[in-house]
Amino acid sequence: MPELIQDKTIFSLLEVSRSIQKTLAERYKSLYWIKAEMNKLNHYTHSGHCYPELVEKQDGKIVAEIRSILWKADYNRINNNFLKVAQEPLREGITMLFQASISYDPMYGLSLRIVDIDPTFTLGELEKEKLDSIRKLKAEGIYESNKLLDFPVVPKRLAIISVETSKGLSDFYKIINQNPWGYRIESTLFPALLQGDKSVPSIINQLAIIAEKIDRYDVVAIIRGGGGEVGLSSYNNYLLARAIAIFPIPVLTGIGHSTNYTVSEMVAYKNAITPSELADFLIQKFHNFAIPVDRAAERIQQLILTRFKEEHNILSQLATHIQWIGKREIQTSRAAIQQFQHDLNALLKLRFYEQKTALAHTERIIQLSDPIRLLKQGFSITKVNGKLLQSVTQVSQGDVIQTILEYGELTSTVTDKSPKEDLDENNT
């Protein structure tokens, strides 16, 4: 009961709280359908209960906020229904249409007890978010930006955004590292959350880290596997999709689902249904480069072999020709030598004959000039003072001269001499 103090009616806090509780209980007796955004889920795993913080926003600002209660049994039922219909778990950041009772507790204040949530409404809200992200990206002119980048001929340096324990990442590594062709791809893992509302800032942060050392990588791969179709709505987030669209090198996605592509997949350079398919895509890029190179190598080898054979034939022909020319030259030289020898022999014989004839002639002259021969023919040799006397001018009257005959010598004294001219005149 209220107290009366100095003409003032005083209520205790509990009385006021109970009054509010009674009033609200009388006024809000039924269940109500309410639309709000799940700002925080506040799920406590040890108890299984949730204490969601619900908000309403206008122009990005919170204009209403209230606490709610979601008991374990209700949470499990609602969450399973969400997973089945919306392909999303009950999570923070979604706008939902829920059924709740309004209650007030003197200890915990005003709250909403959630008893059901319509997943089809949330699914529609998620689709609206997806379409809104697409509209914004196209309005900025960046929707196709990443797809228009030049893809490296051989993507050898790969930056991977994933979870180290992801089954999809394990499948990806197995194909890449154990490919039978021996293609080598260098990869660096940048760990990130891949599901839930926290996945958006986590992936964006890793993209920013990669961008700081962009020269080290050829492509980026966002790999998620093992989660099926569940928890993909974060990939429709505008900020995440924008970060992928404007990234300076090609971004590849393999986030493990086959229907209803997310915006992030739409703006990526290449989307693969599974991480394994993404690995096959990269291996095929190596094939696209290696096969023409191998064919070119085979063609070059064939050309070299053909050229070698042609050159070998040419060399063989040249060798045969050279051998023939050599034989011909040898034969020609041999004939020339033989002719030279023949000519030399003839010349030597001629020279020998000429020399022999000249020698015989000289011998004949010598024989004819032999003083003894002349003496035998009746000629004599006259000397004066030991010198051959050829002219009367060599002697004077009274000189003693010696006359040599075939048989003996005469000594005479010159009493008179007549020059040749006088003799010629007398003969005349």
The poorly predicted ranges are: none
Helix/strand order, N-terminal first:
EEHEEEHEEHEHEHEHEHEHHEEEEH
Number of strands: 16
CATH class of the largest domain: Alpha Beta
Biggest sheet, strands in spatial order? 3-4-5-7-6
Mean pLDDT over the residues: 85
Reported by name, the CATH topology of the largest domain is: Rossmann fold
Q: Biggest sheet, open or closed, and with what strands and sense?
A: 5 strands, mixed, barrel
Number of domains: 3
Question: How large is the count of helical segments?
Answer: 10
Distance between the termini: 216 Å
Q: Evaluate the radius of gyration.
A: 66 Å
Which descriptor suits the 3D outline?
Answer: rod-shaped
**β content, as a range?**
15-25%
Name of the CATH architecture of the largest domain: 3-Layer(aba) Sandwich
CATH superfamily placement of the largest domain? Response regulator
| Percent helix | 40-55%
Structural class: alpha/beta
Index terms:
5-stranded parallel sheet, 3 domains, Rossmann fold, single chain, 428 residues, alpha/beta
How do the strands and helices of this protein lay out in sequence?
Elements lengths: L2 E3 L2 E3 L2 H15 L4 E9 L12 E6 L2 E9 L2 H14 L9 E11 L3 E10 H22 L16 E6 L4 H11 L8 E6 L7 H14 L6 E5 L14 H8 L5 E4 L8 H5 L2 E3 L2 H94 L2 H6 L4 E4 L2 E2 L11 E6 L2 E6 L6 H8 L1
Parallel strand pairs: 5-7, 8-9, 8-10, 10-11, 11-12
Antiparallel strand pairs: 1-2, 3-4, 3-6, 4-5, 6-7, 13-14, 13-15, 15-16
Helix pairs in contact: 3-6, 4-8, 5-6
Can you describe this structure?
The protein has 428 residues and is α/β, with parallel strands linked by helices. The protein has 3 domains: 3-124, OB fold (Dihydrolipoamide Acetyltransferase, E2P) (Beta Barrel), CATH 2.40.50; 139-288, 3-Layer(aba) Sandwich (Rossmann fold), CATH 3.40.50.2300; 373-427, no CATH class. The chain is built from 10 helices and 16 strands. It has a 5-stranded mixed beta barrel. Strands 9-8-10-11-12 form a 5-stranded parallel beta sheet, with helices on both faces. The chain has a 4-stranded antiparallel beta sheet with strand order 14-13-15-16. Strand 13 and strand 14 form a beta hairpin. Helix 3 packs parallel to helix 6, helix 4 (167-177) packs parallel to helix 8 and helix 5 (199-212) runs parallel beside helix 6 (238-245). The model has no long low-confidence stretch (mean pLDDT 85).
